[in-house]
Amino acid sequence: MTPIDPIRPATARPRENDAFGFQMRTVFGSLRHTRTRTRITFVTIGLVILICLTSYIQVLLNNWNGPFYDSIEKRNLAEFGRQLEVFVLIAGALLVCNVVQAWFTQTATLLLRRGLAVDLLRLWNSCGRAVPQDATLEGARNPDQRIQEDSLNVADWTVSLSIGLFQSTILLLSFVGILWSISGSFALSLFGLHISIPGYMVWIALIYAGAGTFLSSVVGRQLVDQNNRRAAFEAEFRKALVEANTARGTDTVTRQSVFATSWHLYRIFSNVLASTRLIIVSQTNLTWISAGFGWGGLVVPVLAAAPAYFSGQISFGGLMMAVGAFNQVNTALRWQITNFSMIAQWRAAMHRIVQFKLQLEIFRQSTGHNGKS
To answer: Which residues belong to any copy of the ABC transmembrane type-1 domain (predicted)?
Structure first.
């Protein structure tokens, strides 16, 4: 059995345990010496190439909007047909990239889940016996949930969020220059002064997405703790159900014991429901922000580009190119708003795995098991 990397539980302070960098090192640090790391590296390289290629094709698709809509404005049937042929080629290339990227994404999730689960199993087995119920860290009391459910969720959300963040960054870098050049210099007359704003649509996109990100952070900041509390209550409820089912298989079952067990189960389940209601409220409030800014994104780019279009600075095709570039930039900048709920659940699952690994490491050291064989 491969030795388990120490994670310094004795020196880890409570605040450090909640730090993002410490959590990442604790959860993924032990994978760096495994064969899974090599496979994930190759899959990651493939994903990077595919995302960059997809972004380039999306730039071509946005540039295609110009001549296509100009042909509609000019009623040029021949050019309209030629642009449809170009669209088929671009859409076909995007389709192939999306299918291959989906395969790479699922493969990366599978490999990461395997690495996390094997690492947690190795650490759990190295303890030699069950962790006592008076464990100081809550995460160690439910090894089944940490090893099975949380390893799956962390792997899935890590891959999804990493790909989404990288893709949004590439799109932002690809389209911000296009949007800057299309929007040009907007002249605003105010009290007899002519104020020129270079790349004004870029600034509008930044302000619009920044406002949404700030509001979502304020509204959804409690989701991480709320997800942690609900997971703890869910684990307690599941454990109580198993214990109640085991107890009913004995010969000592009485009406009083059944009543006491039922009351205990209802009490725990009420905690599950109460914690879930808090999450529902937070997610509902977050939906006001994400959905509101999402619907606003349909009209804001048109309003931003309208002055240049009605003044004759850009054609109808140029207007559609500007709208498309604005939407790409806005989508990239709104990545945190769109994924805030998933980020909160991911951070909560990461926290539980960290607690689990820290407690098992403490218990293993206290019992004299070194995890080597």
So the answer is: 45-345
